[in-house]
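Students often ask why inverse folding is considered easier than folding. One informal answer: many sequences map to the same fold, so there is more than one right answer. In these notes we will look at a single instance of the problem. The structure comes first.
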């Protein structure tokens, strides 16, 4: 899993409406060619005595109805005194496989903390969502759910959301939408489009990375940075040796260099990385400039030539060493054709700007994870927490 991409954000962003989408939009199966009829089976001759009675079956214990998952209690964190309930983390956490939950929890909680910071910022700006506006949106939602034969109350229960909690989330999203519309006018969107052609033309890169997660201890962070810098230096030196030893022209030597660098980077990722991608040598496959990875990571990956390595990159998830392994160029687009994509990127950058300005000033208290946070099932409906 690309845990440092926006996977948790995507899970948290999914609204209750998304849960009804599959019910509303039936999938049309592709046409199939009927199979030829099978040859009739040869049956034994009927007996003169008809079978009577019932077929004896082994007895089994009655099937117990599935019990609802208990709603987690407690407080996961506080942001300027405002509590983030543990259940808010659990809604998203239960959708991750067990081996990914430790890292996923950090990502989910960080995203929730930032959401609270943004909502507090919007409240300070007097952005509002009137009760009548919230009522109207929820009634529209209920209508959409009904079309898909989805029960609104049961959906809330499955997602461990009370009606009051859901109203708060809807109001928060409405305030954000108003702020985004206010800030992201057409002139601002066009300015962003003109300044960032590679963001909107479909360009992608493929990269490997090594992640170290030293936490916030300064000495451990410094040690992680030194380790990653040493790994980079070793790979570069060994790759140069391979190039120098390779027979042939400059192209052959470059091929030897990149092959050796890629092999060594993958080996170091398997040994040192904290990311689940370590099992694939740190390979993250292809991703776009915006929307998949956090900004410092994406910016560094796109700036690299194939098989060159970054300096150590710091994100909220830890310290990274990145090697870009391939690039796919995009196709120039017109602003009018990608305007909604531009708006989406503007929203991400606006969110990052608010968080960057307000988070350092916030008083944040993170509590220890509960002793038992193992979800009963990873297959659950999308949560209704609307995210920016």
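Output (designed amino acids):
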């Amino acid at each position: 899993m690309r845990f440092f991409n926006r996977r948790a954000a995507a899970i948290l962003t999914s609204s209750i409406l998304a849960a009804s989408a599959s019910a509303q939009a039936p999938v049309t199966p592709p046409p199939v060619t009927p199979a030829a009829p099978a040859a009739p089976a040869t049956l034994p001759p009927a007996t003169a005595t008809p079978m009577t009675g019932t077929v004896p079956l082994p007895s089994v214990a009655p099937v117990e109805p599935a019990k609802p998952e208990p709603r987690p209690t407690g407080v996961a964190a506080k942001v300027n005194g405002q509590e983030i309930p543990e259940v808010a983390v659990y809604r998203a956490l239960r959708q991750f496989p067990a081996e990914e939950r430790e890292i996923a929890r950090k990502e989910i909680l960080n995203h929730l903390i930032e959401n609270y910071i943004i909502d507090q910022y919007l409240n300070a700006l007097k952005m509002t969502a009137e009760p009548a506006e919230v009522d109207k949106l929820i009634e529209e939602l209920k209508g959409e759910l009904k079309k898909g034969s989805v029960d609104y109350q049961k959906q809330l229960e499955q997602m461990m959301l009370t009606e009051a909690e859901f109203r708060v989330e809807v109001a928060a999203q409405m305030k954000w939408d108003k702020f985004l519309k206010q800030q992201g006018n057409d002139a601002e969107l066009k300015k962003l489009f003109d300044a960032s052609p590679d963001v909107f033309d479909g360009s992608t890169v493929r990269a490997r990375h090594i992640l170290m997660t030293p936490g916030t201890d300064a000495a451990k962070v410094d040690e992680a940075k030194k380790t990653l810098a040493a790994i980079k230096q070793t790979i570069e030196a060994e790759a140069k040796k391979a190039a120098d030893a390779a027979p042939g022209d400059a192209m052959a030597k470059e091929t030897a260099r990149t092959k050796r660098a890629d092999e060594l980077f993958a080996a170091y990722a398997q040994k040192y990385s904290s990311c689940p991608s370590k099992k694939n040598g740190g390979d993250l496959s292809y991703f776009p400039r915006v929307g998949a990875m956090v900004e410092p990571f994406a910016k560094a990956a796109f700036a690299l030539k194939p098989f060159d390595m970054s300096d150590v990159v710091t994100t909220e998830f830890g310290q990274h060493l990145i090697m870009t392994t391939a690039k796919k160029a995009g196709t120039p687009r017109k602003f009018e054709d990608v305007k909604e994509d531009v708006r989406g990127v503007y929203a991400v950058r606006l969110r990052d700007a608010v968080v960057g300005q307000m988070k350092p000033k916030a008083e944040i208290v993170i509590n220890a994870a509960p002793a038992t946070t193992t979800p009963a099932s990873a297959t659950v409906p999308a949560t209704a927490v609307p995210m920016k």
